[in-house]
Design brief:
alpha+beta
Length: 842
């Protein structure tokens, strides 16, 4: 009987450990989502993949598939087009869109969904087409539910051979060019002659940039999510009148949410004027445009040529068409911001702020063959100043001509890759309850084994009651079973809880904020539960293609995990692809991880001047004694702002004088430990530097950039939470990180990369005077997350706790960079000469 008892003990222990305290997503088998049960019996609908994204896309991002649908049926009907997505829980999100078929005619439709981080060119892309059956209660809001399958497509990017678009490596930025000429952008994508095509870094910098060129207005998607993977769109050629209403709205929404549209005006034609045929005319900078013919580009040599010298062999066109911009008298400061001008004072690059994005007009004819034939404009001299980037981005020919040995070593050598956005899964994990459950399970298991085993049997033997061993065992088993159930019930969550990491951006004077939130939601029920972002009433009553949709939500997986996961009862759930602001996934009393992108009217009371118009930039001579800025700020955030960085951009550095730091702006950075809600931040005191060198932005960035020391990487590479401040602040200023340097030894150089936070840096603000404040806000409760996430029918946002990185910008009076007294530097001037001749303190 003792052997039987021992087998029983071990059985109960196994059951106890299997059932108590272990998260379901850890103890369940890994499964792969399956196709729909029904299969098409006839080829009623033909489906073809016409485009993958807008010139391609990147893993981890929202992406659009442009599909061609041909209904071979005899009658018009509603079709439900489903793109089968990915969810690490093993469930299948169906990104779906309803269309009205037109028998015998091919229709084009965009369907949008989020790619997992491990998506690759061999990952299957599955699309099914269903008959749409009327159902007003459909969870996705389309008013239809899926009937029988009438068409199917199963393909991959590798199978298409690049015909539909390429997948950009996850470590690279993405730029798109509307038109055939790259207008000098090639330096961002250039590789050294001996650099492997698979190397993910720039020869002299950090991340590479992928440039998709040759795009047309007709290829734009009809929702902003189709542009989400892009940092910049350069419109080099093409008539904006070719944008349909939906495509123009999508582009506008993308800009308002942080996108950057750069328009190079053509030398002939007025398609970008205030014509009623231009659907983007009301978001362009409010300027009067002067078209000047026969202009010598010598007045702009410092902007176009890498090293403008008296003996410079490059001859610039002497008769070119140039457009100059004059801000309208009634234009608001944010509607006509001059960025660059020529030596003659003519403004040739002007910008308009729109939400947290911008639209930039360029009046120089960058696509002139005479410039392209000599590799101009220079990526560093011109585009770094327009886009606010830092670093040496040289053409292939320039890279090949470098004869400095240490630089050649840097280009050819290996590097240690450091991902600055790793560890976000740790910040949103709710581990406390699982740990408590596991500890309780272990404790109960140990006690059960002891009491029902050796201790219990020893007591029975001592009192000569061994004949009651079976009864004692049953009592012990029943008691511990009750204790296990009671403990599980006590630990089981009773309400929805969330933990989040959020980036929140706001530009003072603009009517909206944008936020990206990664959240772990503890959903206590079993069945299914709606998760919504934004106005819950709007998402419940949308009833059709809401073209103005702002917000999106999708299942999310931490970077270190696979997108495929693990519940044996895997199911599918629908997400409305045209306006995916809600999802209704299966719930199993576990944590659901989601990624939310939101934009709307300010929900948090951000910093604001104590007196309107009081914040101004002082004269340079007063910076060290009186501070860089005048005025003061207060904020009404729900908790103190900690680890505060105060960055002042005084303007761009003099044309031709970037020097060794390679930062386009004259900028200083200061730090505060804490800023309480309602407390006044005295800007003169906060921006007073005791040393120009210590407060330089380049010194600040050196402290945020990983550097090799004695063969080991030090800095923000440590994945512990103590380094969260450094990593998350560095992500906000990612384009300003100190470029890699040759190590001169056995240790490898460091290359900074990112995978989940593309498009969330503040590079654009390096091009003009402004005040930037970056800080951490840790809070809990219904207002703890600035992104409004709702669960079920709740009208109030879910109660949560977590970390918000606030990035607030106050635009200052514009000041385009000037030219030196003699704009012609000695021929062949090197960095040392340029540094010795720059402005004081730079």
């Amino acid at each position: 009987m003792s052997r039987t008892c021992h087998r029983t003990w071990f059985g109960w222990v196994a059951l106890l450990f299997a059932g108590v305290g272990l998260p379901a997503d850890r103890c369940c088998a890994q499964v792969t989502s399956s196709l729909a049960n029904d299969t098409p019996t006839t080829g009623e609908v033909a489906v073809d993949l016409a485009a993958f994204g807008f010139g391609g896309s990147r893993a981890g991002e929202w992406t659009g598939l442009r599909l061609t649908i041909l209904d071979r049926g005899e009658r018009q009907r509603t079709l439900l087009v489903r793109w089968h997505g990915w969810d690490r829980d093993g469930d299948t999100p169906f990104y779906e869109r309803a269309i009205a078929s037109n028998p015998g005619q091919a229709l084009s439709v965009w369907v949008y969904g989020r790619l997992p981080y491990d998506f690759n060119e061999d990952t299957p892309i599955e699309v099914t087409v269903h008959e749409g059956l009327d159902d007003a209660s459909a969870a996705d809001g389309t008013g239809y539910r899926a009937g029988r399958v009438v068409g199917r497509l199963l393909t991959s990017l590798s199978a298409s051979g690049g015909r539909v678009g390429r997948l950009t490596p996850i470590q690279q930025r993405r730029y798109a060019v509307v038109g055939s000429s790259r207008a000098g952008l090639d330096g961002y994508a250039a590789r050294a002659p001996n650099q492997s095509i698979g190397t993910p870094w720039a020869p002299l910098g950090h991340e590479l940039t992928s440039i998709a060129a040759g795009l047309t207005p007709q290829q734009f998607p009809d929702r902003w999510m189709g542009l989400a993977s892009l940092d910049v769109i350069v419109w080099e050629r093409g008539n904006p009148a070719d944008l349909s209403g939906a495509r123009a709205r999508a582009l506008r929404r993308w800009i308002e949410r942080g996108g950057r549209l750069v328009v190079v005006l053509p030398s002939a034609g007025q398609e970008w004027g205030q014509s009623v045929n231009n659907p983007l005319r009301d978001i362009l900078p409010r300027v009067a445009t002067r078209r000047m013919e026969g202009v010598s580009l010598e007045a702009f040599r410092g902007l176009l040529v890498p090293r403008a010298g008296a003996g410079d062999p490059i001859r610039l066109p002497s008769r070119s068409v140039v457009h100059a911009f004059d801000p309208l008298a009634d234009a608001e400061p944010s509607e006509a911001v001059p960025l660059l001008k020529g030596e003659n004072g003519d403004i040739v690059v002007v910008q308009r702020l729109l939400g947290v994005g911008d639209v930039t007009l360029i009046g120089l004819n960058l696509r002139a063959p005479s410039l392209a034939s000599v590799g101009l404009p220079s990526t560093v001299s011109f585009w770094n100043r327009v886009l606010g980037r830092r670093g040496r981005f040289l053409s292939v020919d320039e890279l090949a001509s470098i004869d400095d040995r240490s630089t050649q070593q840097l280009m050819a050598g290996a590097r240690t890759e450091v991902f600055y956005d790793i560890g976000m899964g740790d910040l949103v994990s709710k581990t406390g309850r699982a740990a408590a459950g596991l500890l309780a399970g272990v404790g109960l298991g140990v006690a059960y084994v002891a009491i029902a085993g050796p201790i219990g049997f020893a007591l029975l033997r001592r009192f000569d009651r061994t004949r009651h061993a079976w009864l004692a065992f049953v009592i012990a088993a029943a008691g511990f079973t009750g204790a296990a159930w009671g403990t599980a019930a006590a630990l089981r969550p009773k309400s929805v809880e969330g933990r989040h990491l959020t980036f929140l951006d706001h530009v003072y004077g603009q009517p909206l904020q944008r936020g990206r939130t990664w959240m772990g939601l503890l959903l206590p029920g079993y069945g299914e539960e709606a998760i919504r972002v934004g106005d819950p009433e709007l998402s419940r009553t949308r009833g059709g293609d809401r073209a103005g949709a702002w917000d999106v939500i999708a299942p999310w997986e931490p970077l270190a995990t696979s997108a495929q996961g693990g519940f044996p009862d895997a199911r599918g759930y629908a997400i409305w692809a045209a306006a995916p602001d809600s999802m209704t996934p299966p719930t199993r009393a576990t944590v659901k991880r989601v990624q939310v992108d939101w934009a709307g009217g300010p929900r948090w009371s951000m910093p604001r001047p104590a007196q309107e118009g009081s914040i101004r930039l002082r004269d340079r001579t007063a910076w060290n004694l009186e501070g860089m800025l005048t005025g003061s700020l207060t904020h009404g955030l729900p908790a103190p702002m900690t680890d505060v960085s105060v960055i002042v951009i005084a303007g761009q550095r003099t044309v031709g004088r970037l020097g060794g730091a390679e930062i386009v702006s004259d900028a200083r950075a200061f730090s505060l430990s804490e800023w309480e809600p309602g407390a006044a931040l005295d800007l003169p005191e906060a921006t007073k530097g005791t040393s120009n060198v210590q407060s330089l932005l380049r010194s600040f960035m050196d402290g945020l950039t990983d550097r090799p020391r004695g063969g080991f990487a030090v800095g923000v590479t440590d994945r512990t939470l103590e380094n969260t401040r450094g990593r998350l602040t560095a992500l906000a200023l990612f384009g300003q990180l100190t470029p890699p340097e040759p190590t001169g030894g056995a240790s490898e150089s460091i290359v900074a990369l990112r995978r989940a936070t593309h498009g969330w840096d503040l590079d654009r603000w390096m091009t003009r005077p402004c005040l930037i404040i970056i800080g951490r806000v840790e809070s809990e409760g219904e207002d703890a997350c600035p992104t409004p996430v709702h669960v079920g029918d709740a009208s109030e946002p879910v109660s949560s706790e977590g970390l918000t990185i606030v990035r607030w910008v106050y635009p200052l009076e514009p000041a385009p960079p000037g030219y030196p007294v003699s704009s012609l530097l000695p021929s062949g001037a090197d960095d040392a000469e340029m540094r010795s001749d720059r402005e004081p303190g730079l």
